[in-house]
Design brief:
The protein is of the alpha/beta class. It is built from 15 helices and 23 strands.
Length: 497
């Protein structure tokens, strides 16, 4: 089974196309500073989110200030890396310094990020401070802003169009951003079903778990997956001690402890099994969807919920949407229509990609059961990956690791060369053409691991390349069996520019 650190490396390769850059996650030094004065509850909440967000990715973080010791303890229980690399210390020479609600020391060698919030207003820059009552929406937004800016700075030379602007005072009123006409206080939920407790589901539930006012009503949590050590790089506030318990069970207990007036029930089953057991006589009043495929979202849409909140990540984007179907409004299914032009459905595509039988694929995708040793061996032989990274993992969890790689035969080389693929943004063709070591296959691009200049004919490709479902920018699914017949019949593969 792969570690969280290995998963971060896989994700970085899929996003940037260069495994060597993953060393920056281990070598970059970060520091988090809090004021020397006694911390307020609002500052403590911001600190929780910043520490959790940073320490699931970066492996060298120091903490300094009034919250340094609780920050260190929190980092050591949540990090997917080495807990010993999270220290209560101040050792200048940092690459990035993040100051929470205070000014950072003047260090010209470091990239300084000063972040805070006041009520519903997120503040970044020299005027950043923390005021007002605890607000988990603003705290999470501020932490995400700071963490994404740190990532953008460290990998600025590898991200297309990622020139990092200077950090000036920026304010964002989240009430305006989200169209809130009133400030939510006590919440009374209609009968609500949360489908999926993955990365976005955890982020949503963490807001409710930290909501400063009473939350009442009823909520069902539906997700068949247990926690695993390879989950730790992406699940907000997941603890090491949670492995191998069911995700929905842990989240149920956390919500019940914080909000005793909220009736929370956990269902460690797939969504169709849950709905069959629940019955269809009564519509779901509110469905909150944080699933990991268009196919699963189509399944939720078929249950005809009265209202739906959809949350997603796609490539470099995150988003959310509210659906209240009527004669004039669309439902969730309208945004996830089955593509008519595709030759194969999801089951056929994944079967071709993995070598598993279609019936096995459908069962694994629907139930989220972990791969058996036999199933993992089939995929490993088909894709030439390590079997130990697959055993026990749900099929959807391992698909990203199988994307973004393919093989081409270079002139003068008898053996195929492993190549990470990417899809350039069609609106930014110039940046794709100017990238280093980029080859263009009509509208598609990939970056070989060798710098050898070459011309490769269509016949040299031993695999067909097709976009990976649900992933928008730098991912490809590449079947390992030779498949000929590109739709565009490219005459050759040529050096960009």
């Amino acid at each position: 089974m792969s570690t969280a650190s290995e998963r971060n490396t896989q994700a970085l390769q899929s996003m940037i196309g260069d495994t060597a850059l993953a060393t920056r996650l281990k070598q970059t030094r970060l520091a988090v500073i809090t004021p020397a004065t006694a911390p307020t509850p609002a500052l403590q909440l911001l600190s929780e989110y910043v520490v959790d967000t940073l320490c699931r990715l970066w492996e060298q973080v120091d903490f300094h200030g009034s919250l340094a010791e609780p920050q260190r303890l929190a980092a050591q229980t949540t990090t997917g890396g080495d807990p010993a690399s999270m220290q209560h210390a101040w050792r200048p020479g940092y690459d990035v310094v993040i100051a929470l609600g205070c000014r950072a020391p003047d260090m010209s060698a470091a990239y300084i990020i000063e972040i805070g919030y006041d009520g519903w207003t997120v503040i970044m820059g020299p005027d950043a401070h923390v005021g007002g009552e605890s607000n988990p929406v603003a705290a999470a937004f501020a932490a995400a802003l700071a963490s994404s800016r740190a990532f953008q700075w460290v990998f600025r030379d590898a991200l297309d169009g990622a020139a990092v602007p200077p950090v000036e005072t920026t304010r964002a009123d989240l009430r305006v951003l989200y169209g809130l006409t009133t400030e939510p206080m006590a919440l009374t939920l209609p009968p609500t079903v949360v489908f999926g407790s993955g990365a976005v589901g955890h982020a949503f539930l963490s807001i409710l778990e930290r909501w400063p006012h009473p939350v009442t009503g009823a909520m069902d949590l539906v997700d068949p997956d247990p926690y695993g050590h390879s989950n730790m790089q992406r699940y907000t506030f997941m603890l090491r001690a949670s492995v191998p318990k069911a995700k929905v069970t842990i989240r149920r207990d956390a919500l019940a402890q914080k909000h005793p007036g909220l009736k929370v029930t956990s269902y460690p089953h797939d969504l169709n099994a849950y709905c069959q057991a629940r019955g269809y006589a009564e519509h779901i009043a509110l469905a909150v969807v944080g699933l990991d495929s268009p196919e699963a979202r189509r399944h939720v849409a078929l249950k005809l919920p009265i209202r739906t909140v959809n949350m997603w990540t796609e490539g470099k984007r995150v988003g959310g949407a509210l659906y209240t179907p009527s004669d004039q409004r669309a439902c969730l299914g309208c945004d996830y229509l089955e593509p008519k032009g595709e030759r194969m459905d999801e089951t056929a595509r994944v079967a071709q990609q993995t070598g598993l039988l279609p019936g096995v694929v459908r069962q694994l995708l629907d139930t989220a059961a972990g791969l058996t040793t036999t199933e993992a061996q089939v995929i490993a032989a088909h894709q030439h990956v390590r079997v130990e990274n697959l055993v026990g993992e749900p099929l959807r969890s391992v698909l990203p690791a199988l994307c973004a790689t393919g093989r081409v035969v270079l002139p003068g080389s008898a053996a195929p060369v492993e190549v990470p693929f990417e899809i350039p943004d069609p609106a930014d063709a110039a940046s794709a053409r100017s990238a280093r070591n980029v080859f263009v296959l009509h509208q598609f691009a990939f970056a070989p691991t060798t710098d050898e200049r070459c011309r490769v004919t269509e016949a040299a490709l031993d695999q067909e390349s097709r976009p990976c479902e649900g992933r928008a920018h730098v991912e490809f699914c590449v079947p390992s069996q030779a498949v000929r017949g590109f739709a565009c019949k490219p005459p050759l593969l040529r050096r960009a520019g």
